[in-house]
Amino acid sequence: MTDVVALTQALLRAESVTPARGAVFDVLEAALAPIGFAVDRFVVGEAPDGPVENLIAVRAGVGQHLAFAGHLDVVPPGVGWTGSPWSGEVRGDLLYGRGAVDMKGAIAAFVAAAARATGPTLSLLVTGDEEGPATFGTPALIERMAARGIAPDLCLVGEPTSVRQLGDMVKIGRRGSVNIWIVVAGRQGHVAYPHLADNPAGKLAKALAALQDMGLDHGNDWFQPSNLEITDIAVGNPAHNVIPARAEARVNIRFNDGQRGDDLIERVTALVQEHAPGAVVTGKVSGEAFLTAPGPWTAVLSAAIEAQTGLVAELSTSGGTSDARFLSRLCPTVEFGLVNATMHQVDEAVAVADLETLAAVYADVIGRVAQL
Fold first, then answer.
1. What is the pLDDT of residues 59-99, one digit of tens each?
2. Residue pair 32/112 in contact by the 8 Å Cβ criterion
3. Which active-site residues does the annotation give?
4. Cβ-count burial of 160 within 10 angstroms (0-12 exposed, 13-18 middle, 19+ buried)?
5. How many helices (H) and strands (E) would you count in the chain?
């Protein structure tokens, strides 16, 4: 039987600031091979977003194919840790280390679950770049799966979804995200002679005010209203007596499943042009919104959580984006993992008892999927 705590410690001791490669994948492969998984590791991409290492591990079974997805890369540890962020040290009831919660602990829990549960075909889809650009992360995994004919029926992402205690929340969807850059060109000049210049700052200000007043939607049964936020404004003008030649801004829209990213880019572009004709507007969709509506898959996960924790999990679409935005294109996708209170923080830590309980939940899920 795989010891979930020991495996988590081994993963934590392999430093893996995004993009992760090498040693941390060695640790995971060494845990998977003895329990029957065929492991495929590959490195893709070039700078600045690569190279990135990814892993696909498959163990054949019968009936449904359950995929577990996660990432081994972590954010930089920062300063101020009580001990080493790579120690994997247990102090009291807690196991400390960067990635303990987000999300090496969940990966270890699923491996431990797979060691004790059999039945369905199981796969692990693990990337070394979820915390970074993600250009060569899960999208590259999906391409590799398609080339190999790997097609899961259900997907469980081990992101830390629990809020106050393990088992209180499952994510069944996520809002989409789009970044939009706005550049308004003008003509530089002296502030005392505005008729000889063309100030782009006022035009940009009017455009941004209109964007903030633009209603997107009122939300729906599963999603909150979409929101647009101004995230950067710049003119790059160090002089107090010069009208700038250029004004720029960036906005981000988090949107529900009633919207599409490209449609929002077009809508923003049209409104900006009304107030700043000739402005250059460029958008990039980071991910579309998705929803896995309550049904057999959410029922299986909820039943396993209640059986192992005694809690009835809230089904939610709150929070930011995750790699589930990519995986949801393949099959019904839900997310469930550890308590997220310390993720990305100094002294990130997971309760040892939660690791063991999460492994039990995942094993229960595997058993129930075998009966679908």
1. 999 999 999 999 999 999 999 999 999 999 999 999 999 99
2. no
3. 73, 130
4. buried
5. 9, 19
